[in-house]
Amino acid sequence: MGELIFDWAEMTARIGLDGVLYAALALAGTALFALRVLLVTLGAGGEDDVAGIDDGDGMQVVSLLSVTAFMMGSGWMGLTARIDWGLGPTGAALAAAGFGAALMLFASFLLLAMRRLGRQVTYDTATAVGRTGTVYAAIPARGEGAGQVRVSVSGRSMVLPAGSTGPAIEAFADVRVVEVRDDDLLLVERV
Length: 191
Hints:
two-stranded antiparallel ribbon; rod-shaped; 2 domains; alpha+beta
């Protein structure tokens, strides 16, 4: 019929049964990772919330991506430790488990960072009342339109629309926020 391309007995004798296990783990993890990347690229992959062991800070320690990273990392590291480094079964297992765990944590931290990037940040413009700021874009006289002012709101420096309570205020002038209207327009006066 033909020659077998893959000889199980020869492979097992050469790298050991654990080496074959590492090879299977590496190939399966890499295939799942490639499939995940393909699905995300095509728009079919959503957020990674398949498994939900959460540490309480929003970081999912166990997720599909982190398990795939563990499989891929431990498989390739175990194979490398057995074949290239010549380590025994125990040394290869420790190297594989350590590297797989490190990749798993790295994937979890990446997911957490991506979720934080997409988080909607809220702020309360009412916290600006009484604070001083700098006019960013000139503010016309009262009732003639709005300009912009840079002021601290909820602990962050922001540029927001502002109107004058009196005469026009030129750019770079120091102002104090005296009121916030319902439409979040800051009413300011020159300091």
